[in-house]
Amino acid sequence: MGLKKKLHTLKEKYRGTKMAPAFNAFHTFLYMPNMTTESGSHIRAADDLKRTMNTVIMALVPVLLFGIFNTGYQHYAAIDAANGITREVSLLENFLTWENFSLGALKVLPLVLISYGVGLGIEFIFAIIYGHEVEEGYLVTGMLVPLIVPVDIPLWMLVIAIVFGVVIGKEVFGGTGMNILNPALTIRAFLFFAYPTWMSGDKVWVHGAREMAGTPDAISGETVLGKLAQGNEVTTSIADMFFGFMPGSIGETSTFLILIGALFLLFTKIASWRIMLSSVIGALVMGLIFNGVVSAGWIGTNSPFYTLMDTTFWHHLLIGGFAFGVVYMATDPVTGSQTNRGKWIYGFFIGFLSIMIRVFNPAYPEGVMLAILLMNVFAPTIDHYVVKANVNKRKKRLNVKTA
Amino acid sequence: MSKDITIKRGLSIRLIGGAEEVISDAPRSRTFVIRPADFHLITPRMVIKEGAKVKVGDTIFHSKDHEEMKFVAPFSGTLTKIERGARRVILNLHFDVDETDEYVDFGSLDAKTASADQIKAKLLESGCWPFIMQRPYHVIANPESTPRDIFISAFTSAPISNNYNFSLRGKEKELQTAIDALSKFTTGSIHVGMEKGVASPFDSIQGIKRYSVSGPHPAGNVGTQMNAIAPVNKGEIVWTVNAQDLVIIGELLLTGKYNPERIVALTGSSVKKPKYYKTRIGAEVSTFVYDSGLNEENVRVISGDVLTGTKIALDKHLGAYDTTVTIIPEGDDYEFFGWNKPVFDKISTSRALTFSWLFPKKEYDLTTNTNGEHRAFVMTGGYEKVFPLDIYPMQILKACMVEDLDDMENLGMYEVAPEDFALTEFVCVSKQPHQEIIRKGLDLMIKEIG
After folding, report:
1. ipTM computed for the complex
2. Whether residue A183 sits in one domain with residue A251
3. Residue A313's closest CA among A293, A333, A285, A341?
4. Which residues of B touch A271 (CB under 8 A)?
5. Which one of A399, B37, B286, B320 is most buried, by most CB atoms within 10 A?
6. pLDDT tens for residues B384-442?
7. Closest-CA distance of chain B to residue A342, Å
8. Residues in A 116-155 with any Cβ partner in B closer than 8 A
9. Stated pTM of the model
10. Is residue B276 part of a domain?
């Protein structure tokens, strides 16, 4: 094994130098290190953080591929629609085509490259400055970011957002494992508030919609959620919503593939089923409450909240970024609740608040992002009270003894 | 009449190299070594000089804090070298062993009629006291303390470790004597956790409260049983004694002789013929390791079991508390794309392209490789699945790392020993040294709270 030997010699050469973390990051990518246990348990389980993060990335790949095809498909479908041709989606005939793929790849892959390039670059710099190993957290963040932005976002904007999200959202807290907010959502929230016109409305969700706006070829690219918020008529069928043949952020549209990703994450025991289940319950409960409000007649049809409130409760799971957020971002173990009981509460409120924000804030209908960020902030508080119950039990035991 | 305890959360790690239930005599060791570090937080005061001759049971050193607490020689021999480290801390005491043993006669004592003070004096004098451990803090029991209860685990559940149900067979008399003696020290009970449905030498012992414990490792850990029976509260002290050490205590009281005999389980996938050896505390492990033979050169020798033992070199000696010697392959090699390829030959609690869940009965040949680099705590929820104590493992570890004494106390540090965190350490995705973190936390509490 020539390569193994050579790399080992190089590793010993770099040991203790500033470049060691950078070299080790590449070295450990190729080879699992020769590190052995020193004390305590002399054997260790097979999983490390790289394997864990890699599993999440695998769960994201189908969504990414779908996003690439869908980007192309929505673009051509919108052009057809502008010319008065209505398309009927068919997986093999007009969806999985080379035309869709090449256009989508041309738009999406640069986002992926920028995301990984900039984000990992920052991680490397911080690792070198502080002399710690490059942590794997960004491997997942880097994949999430391109999937939760509109396809036409300018690359420079993404760069600024990633620098902000990684430095302010993560590194200042001490890097992976120490951050309070989910870095991918911090990046998206930064984009959302810094460049709102690029992040919402009806001109950003389909490639080309913005450039062609005002021209005779103008195409519309409104999301289902946007239409509902504006009280416009929704023509997308439930099946199309479920399978994801609709405009939206690159990776968030296909509830079907997200569900497959979720099942994979649950099967591999990487993500918390408690958070996912309780989020869905929370969303359904909120949806039912709103449905109840509408059927009780407490709110008129001319209310700005009417259409979204009237949306059948379980349709909320299919539209917008809800499914994507719950499966891939609410389950982030670092920023989520860390106790099992806390996870139930944390998840429930994410679902509950997502739908509430979605309905009451039609200008920015994407509630799940804000709900997760908000609950990220509250997760330590939830854990504090859950752990306190255990502490109190211990104190009570002591009091019974001394009494 | 026994109560049932069922442990649900845990993990039984199946490894190749469990000891065959045969006992051979280990060849007589030519040297022995006493490691003061085995007696955690004891500062030794030497009473003999280099060149001095000792008999079995002669005092080598006593504790600086408790002069009456003696540490004695397991063989007749001559002190050849006092090996010191930084700040003149004594690392190892090397002895040459004589051809035959002479014993110090401490005089027998009837455990049934003797008073607690008489027994205490005898145990301190004869070097048997250090076998009594206390919680909180998992250190040698303070002779001035009175325990609320005494806990003994009659079996082990750690992978490929000493099976006490086998190795203590025929020692009922010694066990009964030791139990009689210990019962003088506490107004509470002596709680003994026994493996459910398995015949044990403790079956015939009188004067104990029996519990039949079932479930995966760490069901056999005394800390697990204690947490299920009656956890330690702040201000309380309980004692624990390893079942094999009871035999030494019992024999001393019966015969007046200190006999540090150990039935050691020699286990591990690197051992040719894993089986039991009769040897002594402080003896060279190589005497019986070479008797059995090794399958490979590059091995890790562990004095103790694979989850909690101490790393030693092959020419080194058996630790004072250890009843198992485990030898497994060193894992100091690189593995091409080891972090993402499917794994069939290692144990995992996830299913992230790891397939040990498909073969629950398979025995594995694990090495000492960490399978990844050290990272900050990231994953949550995994520790709780293998941690049966009513304590939040990750939160208590973090409290120890930031040295938050209030949190440590509130979260249950009085109840734990490092060995309770062996499994969370095993499954840790971030490869954090849990047992070391807990030990340091306990030491800090001793220093700050006492």
Report:
1. 0.90
2. no
3. A285
4. none
5. B320
6. 999 999 999 999 999 999 999 999 999 999 999 999 999 999 999 999 999 999 999 99
7. 11
8. 133, 135-137
9. 0.92
10. no
